[in-house]
Design goal:
By secondary structure, the protein is mainly beta. It has an 8-stranded antiparallel β-barrel. The protein is elongated, with a radius of gyration of 28 Å. The protein starts with a helix and ends in an 11-residue tail after the last strand.
Length: 251
C-alpha cells in the first residue's frame, strides 16, 4: 500500500512544468489571417485629374508560414464624391443650368467615383518589434486589376438621357493592371484578442479607357493612363490557427 504514496512523492520531486511547443508567444507559427480594412486614398497621375480623395474598403486573406513569409489575395471597393470633369453633363442641362426629369421636374443628380481593385499578394513579417515572433514590420507586394469610373446617380428621378446605355457615354470607364507596395506593422496578440495592422501603401495602375465615345467631348479617349493611389490603411485581423495547450502539467 506504500507504493502509491511513494510514486506520488517521486513524481513531485522529479516532475516540472511542461508546455506545448509551438505557442504563438515564443515561436513563429503558421496561420491564416483574414483582415477587413479601411484606407483614405489620395490620387496621383492621371487619376488626380479626374477624381479627388476617396475611401477604400478592403478585405484580405493570406497564409503565413512559420518562416513569416505569406501569400494570399485581397480586394476592395473604392468610392468618393469628388469628380473633376468640367462640362460632363453640359448636353443634359437646360438653359437655366438645371437637369430636369421626364416630368419636367428638376432632378437630383449626383456625380460620384466608383471602382474596385483585386490582386494577389506576397510578403513577409519581420519580428523586430511586438509581443511575439509573429508580429512586426510588414512588407507586402501585390499585382492585379484596377477598374474605376464616374457614377451618375439620378436618385428618385428618371432622366431619359442619363438612363441605361446612355450612361456609358459619360462614365469614363477605365481598367488595367495594377501593382501594390505596402509597409507597416502587423500585430498578433498572444491570446488572439487584439490583432490589427496599419501602414502606408501605394497603388500604381496602367489603365486604358473602355468606352468608344464620350458624349460631352464628342470624341473617344485613347492611350494608356498612369493612375496612382497613395493611402494610409488600417484594419483588424482575425487569425486562424491551432489552439495550443498552455495548461500546467506534471509528469
Amino acid at each position: 500500500m506504500r507504493t502509491v504514496p511513494l510514486l506520488v512523492l517521486a513524481a513531485l520531486l522529479t516532475g516540472g512544468p511542461s508546455y506545448a511547443q509551438g505557442d504563438i508567444r515564443d515561436t513563429a507559427i503558421a496561420l491564416v489571417a483574414i483582415s477587413p480594412s479601411y484606407a483614405y486614398q489620395v490620387p496621383g497621375g492621371a487619376l488626380a485629374d479626374r477624381f479627388g480623395a476617396n475611401s477604400h474598403i478592403g478585405l484580405s486573406a493570406y497564409r503565413k508560414f512559420r518562416s513569416n513569409y505569406f501569400i494570399g489575395a485581397e480586394g476592395g471597393f473604392l468610392f468618393g464624391n469628388k469628380v473633376h470633369e468640367p462640362g460632363l453633363l453640359r448636353h443634359v442641362v437646360n438653359s437655366m443650368g438645371q437637369i430636369v426629369d421626364k416630368d419636367g421636374v428638376m432632378a437630383d443628380v449626383q456625380v460620384l467615383q466608383r471602382g474596385y481593385a483585386i490582386m494577389g499578394i506576397a510578403g513577409k513579417i519581420m519580428p523586430v518589434a511586438g509581443p511575439n515572433p509573429n508580429s512586426g514590420i510588414m512588407l507586402k507586394l501585390g499585382a492585379g486589376y484596377l477598374r474605376h469610373k464616374i457614377r451618375i446617380q439620378t436618385q428618385e428621378n428618371v432622366v431619359p438621357n442619363l438612363e441605361g446605355d446612355y450612361l456609358e457615354g459619360y462614365d469614363r470607364l477605365c481598367a488595367g493592371p495594377v501593382g501594390l507596395f505596402f509597409v507597416g506593422y502587423q500585430h498578433f496578440g498572444n491570446r488572439r484578442r487584439v490583432n490589427f495592422f496599419g501602414g502606408f501603401e501605394i497603388m500604381l495602375g496602367s489603365t486604358a479607357p473602355l468606352r468608344a465615345f464620350n458624349f460631352d467631348t464628342g470624341r473617344a479617349e485613347t492611350g494608356r493612363r498612369l493612375d496612382m493611389l497613395s493611402a494610409l490603411r488600417a484594419g483588424w485581423t482575425v487569425p486562424i490557427h491551432k489552439r495550443y495547450d498552455d495548461r500546467f502539467h506534471l509528469y
